Amino acid sequence: MSNSSDFDLIVIGAGSAGFSAAITAADANKKVALLGHGTIGGTCVNVGCVPSKTMIRAAEAVHGTKAAMRFPGLFGEAKVENWENLIKAKDQLVDGLRQKKYVDILPQYPNITYVNEGAAKLVTGGAKVDKSLYSAPKIIIATGSRPSIPDISGLDKTPFLDSTGLLALTSLPKSLIFIGGGYIGAELAQMMARFGVKVTMVFRSSLLPGTEPEISQNLSNSFEGEGIKLFNRVSYKSAAKTKDGVILTLERFGKSLQLQAQHLVVTAGREANTNDMSLEEAGVELDAKGSIIINSQMQTSNKNIYGAGDVTNRDQFVYMAAYGAKLAAKNAVLGESNTYDNSTMPWVVFTDPQIGGVGLSEAQAREAGYEVKTSVLPMDQVPRALAARNTNGLIKLIADKKTDKLLGGQISAPEGADSIQTLVMALKFSMTAKDLGATIFPYLTNVEGLKLAAQTFDMDVAKLSCCAG
Known about the structure:
FAD/NAD(P)-binding domain, alpha/beta, globular, Enolase-like, domain 1
């Protein structure tokens, strides 16, 4: 076994979290070993955020021509004419961003040594890759996650797609069954339906179960309105291959149900990449799901080893991965005591309508002991939505009844993913509902709905004239 020169920090994983940690340490003039495995860039740029969002936009373009018929006198129609060209364009975008945002960045940091010769394992004093040993006093693990495969009888013998496989299909399928109703399944199912695919979704509880009930129901109605079949409250019995595709057997409300499609798509969440890394031997504790447990300063149960990103038991969003990794690097190599804070962390789902949220839900606020008041504003009370002839959606705000302080909120609306940042700032600076309702917003914007939702706590906004209040 050959020994490398000593480093100040070893970062295992070359995705968004790994690069964030490595660059932060390098900027502090520290010597970093960045140990990658597989394609540089991690999930987001290669098989997650970037390829899915460009394909979702393409599907929106197809759907938008049909949506034009909301306006009297208009007719529109579009369809997928060349699926291979669409996939090729998606792959070119991914390749370009991976090159620009990852590969081309490395030469700008001579004190980062990038290694991509195999999977890393923890050893005393550092990490081993193949026959090479890399030593450092501190280590950050940022190995990300992979699709989780549910335990369904026969699934191991049944061909199925995960999100990566779906986005790599070289021909447009005729029909799909999605297992799972989380954000990945919701985004991709609607996308494929808008491309003309017959789509069915099945899930154990509800669509987007982590959202407010009103938000989940609104999206369910939207999906069904677009022809997507939804089966909630199911238990999975078996999966099998057929001559024409796959068959999935379920039980729902005590009755057996069989569904058939060309492909089965498993979007049942993700699990941490913690296998075969000798974590237990290194004293790194995992939770029941196999994720690395970290404290508020990104430290594992081994004080010299830190974790960041999807491999940990924290928020699985690329921007939080990069944020947490930066804190981990500063704490590890600079001796700082930065604390991870997700109290005003925004999250978004790129369905249509888009969904965004921040802070506490109503249930979480009540569980935390607050005396809660809520405001629910349908989008048909927002002038912008009326002018656009698209009133599908709602805004829900949560506030402390005693102090009027805003505690959280969720938006289901066009541009909801952008509008949520205004509520983030309101929570960050401890605004009350009255403060938000008194803030000046530009007229004929969807984000103005936040002002109206805040005013709805105390008044009937339907009685207001345009721009009043």
